[in-house]
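Data availability (excerpt). The following record was deposited with the supplementary files.
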Amino acid sequence: MADTSMFQQAIDFINSEADLLDHKAYADWLGLWERDGIYVVPVDIHESDFANTLNFAYDDHAMREMRVARLESGESVSGEAQEGTVRSLSRFRLLEESDQEIRLRCAMFLSEVRLAKPLLYPANVEYRLTKTRAGLRLHTKVVRLINAGHHLNTVAFIF
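Predicted structure:
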């Protein structure tokens, strides 16, 4: 039987991650990750072989750092008109739990305001969190955008 307190800790961790991203606390967000972790936003929401297929993002440690540096530098042209994001997370489901990790999935609705126009990005997000003595750490985050097959505006944030 799953440890419900660990499941709640995982939900709290994921909600905290969303809050960091909405408040552009990118350095703190980087601190949530395991060094060998992977952040993925696949083009094909049914794909699972991310290393051998096209992705909007397939970031290892170095790529996450470069993405954050670009967002924080002001050099991201697409970020100039971006006024902010708000994430709403729901429908958390435990997929698997062991002594070393916990995997779960949730629904995410990310709202962005760009040039006073609201945009919505619905997604199913899968997380693999590592259990450490210091608490949970983010190992894998896969954001399956429901509208990935359609035109996406220039994205100036981290899903």
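Summary of structural features: The first helix runs from residue 4 to 22.
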